[in-house]
Design brief:
- The chain is α+β, with helices and mostly antiparallel strands and 327 residues long.
- It has three domains: 77 residues, Carboxypeptidase-like, regulatory domain (Immunoglobulin-like, Sandwich); 99 residues, Immunoglobulin-like (Sandwich), CATH 2.60.40.1120; 104 residues.
- Helix content is 35%, strand content 27%.
- The strands form four sheets. A four-stranded mixed beta sheet has the order 1-8-2-5, with no helix packed on it. A four-stranded antiparallel beta sheet has the order 4-3-6-7, with no helix packed on it. The chain has a four-stranded mixed beta sheet with strand order 15-9-12-16, with no helix packed on it.
- The longest helix has 44 residues.
């Protein structure tokens, strides 16, 4: 059974790698014939995204002789990339196997499909009414698409004078930057049980620190005085043993006095522990109640969120129509 699993994994790995098969030349042109694992997609040669070639399984295209970098892209699939060396007049079959893309994973930027439609390599997403800037330049609202050179950039989103900023790095492939000012209800509610965490999600940092400090202080106080009570009870028990063993009247009176004092001390510790526990429960309860209260700017609705990997379509007219190139 183990060998069978290894064999299946080996086949899956092999199928995920583009491979080249030779074909007999039937003309003087240098060309590639494509065998695709899916019906159709887009082809980019030598990373020239200004010229995306739509191809179907079995299509043949003419190329220049020498080395050619072939990138095959399709909606919801990883890029298939292979380098081909062709002599003049040579033809080759190129088998391209595409793997399905999980748009929710960190690998989502492995697809360059977007660049064929929008000639962009960076997408910045935010709230529908937020003003977006890159390196201090206002570029649009809600979401913008850009063609940026490799390097580091900073973007800010301004939603009704509430500002969120983040830095990002542009490398080869697609870069998606999600810079939301407001949290969703789900972002906050799933963090309510952790003291101060929901407030951090709502950008209420002072309130978060107060909840964390209060819960920590009351919790620490309850533990400290609980330990003092345990120690006090042990000391009181030792005094009782001494009392039972004492024969000297003066010693008996001294033990009684110490026992009364110790018992008063224990009761004092118990009152402090009780107050600490009440404070702990109260602050923690307030932390949960406050977590359900929306921030002043409100919760963000996911109804109008834009996903460049799911929503891409040739007929799509995006909300933000601005496209710029920054140096």
């Amino acid at each position: 059974m183990k060998n069978l699993a290894v064999f299946i994994l080996g086949i899956a790995f092999t199928l995920s790698i583009p491979s080249i098969c030779f074909a007999q030349a039937n003309s003087d042109s240098t060309s590639l014939r494509f065998n695709l694992s899916i019906d159709s997609g887009y082809l980019v040669l030598n990373d020239d995204f200004s010229n995306c070639i739509e191809i179907q399984d079995g299509d043949v295209i003419n190329v220049t002789d020498g080395y050619t970098k072939v990138r095959f892209m399709a909606k919801y699939f990883y890029d298939s990339i292979v380098g081909v060396q062709l002599a003049k007049g040579e033809q080759k079959y190129l088998q391209l196997n595409s793997r399905l893309l999980n748009s929710q994973s960190k690998d989502a930027n492995k697809s360059s499909f977007a660049r064929c439609y929008w000639d962009s390599n960076v997408f910045i997403l935010s709230e529908t009414e937020s003003m977006l800037t890159v390196n201090g330049e206002e570029l649009g609202t809600h979401h913008i698409r850009l063609k940026l050179e490799e390097g580091f950039y900073r973007t800010t989103a301004d939603y009704k004078n509430n500002i969120a900023g983040t830095a990002f790095r542009v490398e080869d492939g697609i870069t998606v930057v999600r810079n939301y000012v407001r949290p969703t209800r789900g972002d906050v509610y799933k963090k309510i049980l952790v003291p101060g965490y929901a407030q951090i999600a709502k950008r209420q940092y002072l309130k978060s620190s107060l909840f964390i400090t209060g819960i920590t202080a009351f919790g620490a106080s309850a533990l400290i005085f609980d330990n003092k009570i345990t120690t006090g009870n042990k000391e009181y028990d030792l005094l009782r043993i001494r009392y039972n063993e004492a024969t000297n009247p003066n010693e008996v009176l001294d033990i009684i006095a110490k026992s009364v004092t110790k018992m008063d001390q224990i009761k004092s510790y118990e009152n402090i522990r009780k107050i600490s526990l009440i404070g702990l429960v109260t602050v923690y309860g307030l932390n949960i109640i406050d977590g359900f209260i929306p921030p002043k700017s409100g919760f963000r609705s996911t109804k109008f969120e834009f996903n460049p990997y799911v929503d891409f379509d040739k007929s799509l007219v995006p909300t933000a129509t601005l496209k710029v190139s920054l140096k």
